[in-house]
């Protein structure tokens, strides 16, 4: 793997995200972080002003979400997505980038970058 390969990153789920599957196995993600501290948190608790976001994923997005375990890299997820849906490499890479960006923008996942020692071990 190259030193600056974005597919070496490992996606991780953000706390307070719950996933619920429908009858077809597609997921609805619900993000509801607890209210903060201070005046803003006090007012949110008193007036039930909780921030809740719902995201509906299609079949491929649900498959992608279910592969996020904090250990698999984006490269591993890309290969599984390509196999599952019989995609060309560029199609599966584009899909992984799209899903990652979409979930990150909505605050549902983060990326754990490999440390420099991990990169050295992969090269050996």
Explain this structure.
This protein is of the alpha+beta class and 124 residues long. It has a single domain (6-123), classed as Coenzyme PQQ synthesis protein D (PqqD) (Arc Repressor Mutant, subunit A). 44% of the residues lie in helices and 18% in strands. The protein is built from 5 helices and 5 strands. The protein has helices at residues 38-46, 59-67, 74-85, 89-105, 116-123, and strands at 10-13, 17-21, 27-31, 53-56, 109-112. The chain has a 3-stranded antiparallel beta sheet with strand order 2-3-4, covered by helices on one side. A hairpin with a 5-residue loop joins strand 2 and strand 3 (27-31). Helix 3 packs across helix 4 (89-105). It is globular and about 50 Å long. The N and C termini lie close together (10 Å).
Structural class estimated from helices and strands: alpha+beta
Poorly predicted runs: 117-124
Strand content: 15-25%
Number of helices: 5
Strand order of the largest sheet: 2-3-4
The averaged pLDDT comes out at 83
The gyration radius over C-alpha positions equals: 17 Å
Number of strands: 5
Helix content: 40-55%
N- and C-termini, Cα separation:
10 Å
CATH fold descriptor: Arc Repressor Mutant, subunit A
């Amino acid at each position: 793997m190259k030193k600056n390969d974005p597919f070496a990153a490992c996606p991780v789920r953000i706390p307070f995200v719950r996933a619920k599957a429908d009858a077809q196995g597609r997921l609805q993600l619900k993000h509801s972080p607890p209210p903060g501290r201070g005046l803003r948190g006090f007012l949110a608790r008193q007036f039930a002003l909780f921030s809740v976001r719902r995201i509906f994923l299609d079949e491929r997005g649900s498959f992608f979400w279910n592969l996020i375990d904090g250990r698999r890299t984006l490269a591993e997820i890309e290969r599984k997505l390509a196999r599952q849906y019989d995609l060309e490499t560029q199609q599966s890479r584009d899909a992984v980038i799209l899903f990652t960006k979409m979930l990150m923008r909505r605050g549902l996942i983060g990326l754990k970058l490999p440390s420099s020692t991990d990169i050295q071990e992969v090269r050996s």
